[in-house]
Amino acid sequence: MPVHSSMTSSMVVLKDVKLNKPLVLLSFLDNSAIGVMTLKYIIENLKMSQFAHVSSPFVPPVTVFVADKLRHPFRLYSDTEGKYCIVLSDIPVDPEGYYEISNVIADWLKDINPSFVVNIDGFPVDKVTDGKRIFGVGDKNAITILQKNKIPLAQSALITGMGGAILNESILRQLPLMSLLAMTIENIPDPAAVLATVETLNTIFGMKIDTGPLKETASKYHEEMKRIMEDYARLQSGDKKADSMYA
Questions:
Q1: N or C: which end of the chain has fewer CB within 10 A?
Q2: Residue closest to 135 by CA, chosen among 154, 157, 158
Q3: Percent of the chain beyond pLDDT 90?
Q4: Could you give the angle at the alpha carbon of 220 between the alpha carbons of 218 and 222, nearest 5°?
């Protein structure tokens, strides 16, 4: 596999992998951690392995400890069959490097001829009501697929950060593109949003990712949040005094 580079940034290939027109999933730690959390779950569930990382002065000099190993923060993974690839970064990238790094990634994407490039991001909200949590946008083919699978289309969307930059460069290279936006509670972990995203990927692309552990975690989280909100409501109404050493 060739090493792609642009100016001072490059893709460093750690081992050769054979890719079979893969589905490529992207997410970066910009506005929300939901996308990165989702991709990490998929990596573990499908037993994917790292095959490359992106070296750039725009990626902060940080080493992360992942899966019992010290790793570069901006990594690429694949499964053993070459059907799926994941591109993620555990830390925010310097915005000044968006253009340069997105060109490196988009050149690589063009070479591997992906079946689809899917960006995953969270859409922070104050409160999530029952109903659809995933919205999609994409090119003409992506919209057809989303509608066929009854995934609501976002009326409008502004995809920013590293993901948006890669999508822009991918448009120029005429790659098949989609972006999934997950509604998520702002500023707190939201396993239900991860579950909804994984279920959507299973529905659209037949990935067959086990959602059992996510359902259990989401259920426990929902019960705990419900209890907290009920306690808070009682405190606000004066039905129950707050636990305090001064009460």
A1: C
A2: 154
A3: 61
A4: 65
Give the C-alpha separation, 81 to 84, whole Å: 8
Q: Is residue 247 part of a domain?
A: no
Contact criterion met (CB below 8 Å) for 100 and 55: no
Q: Which of 84, 103, 210 is nearest to 167 (CA)?
A: 103
User: Residue 203's domain is classified under what CATH number?
Assistant: 3.40.50.10900
pTM of the model: 0.84
Q: What token pair was written down for 84?
A: 């799926």
Q: Are residues 121 and 234 in the same domain?
A: no
Tokens of 35: 């996308």
In angstroms, the Cα distances linking 227 to 28, 98, 220, 224 are 32, 42, 11, 5
- My answer on whether 226 and 146 are in the same domain is no
Q: Give the per-residue pLDDT at 242.
A: 42
Residue 153 exposed, middle or buried by CB count within 10 Å (0-12, 13-18, 19+): middle
Full DSSP string of 12-68: EESS-----S-EEEEEESSS-SHHHHHHHHHHHHTT-EEEEEEE-TTS-S--EEETT
The total number of structural domains in the chain stands at: 2
Question: Could you report the per-residue pLDDT of 70-100, keeping only the tens digit for each?
Answer: 899 999 999 999 999 999 999 999 999 999 9
Note down the domain range covering 230: 211-241
Distance, in Å, from the CA atom of 177 to the CA atom of 171, rounded to the nearest integer, reads: 8
In angstroms, rounded to a whole number, what is the distance separating the alpha carbons of residues 82 and 178? 20
Residue 10's φ and ψ, nearest 5 degrees, are -155, 160
> Is 67 exposed, middle or buried (CB count within 10 Å of its CB: 0-12, 13-18, 19+)?
exposed
In a domain, 147, yes or no: yes
- Do 53 and 90 touch, CB atoms closer than 8 A? no
